User: What shape does this take?
Amino acid sequence: MTIEQQLAQMKKAIDKARDMRYRAEAKLEELEHQKSRLLAELEELGVKPEELEQEIQRLEQEIDRSLAETWELIPKELVEHE
Assistant: This one.
């Protein structure tokens, strides 16, 4: 491989690395904006980020309770048995 070919290959690799860096920086910026929006939404809902897992569990339990209550209100003869 000639010196010119090696230099061309190096330039191509450097350009590719630069492109990857720009893409990574753009993705990081996008993710930071997304994080900010999500934190703002959580604040709007009155949920702290460190309490998120507990809030999810509470909501899942509430959904389960509501589903059970709804099933209790449906006449048994209208429920299909598998």
Residues 3-45 form the longest helix (43 residues).
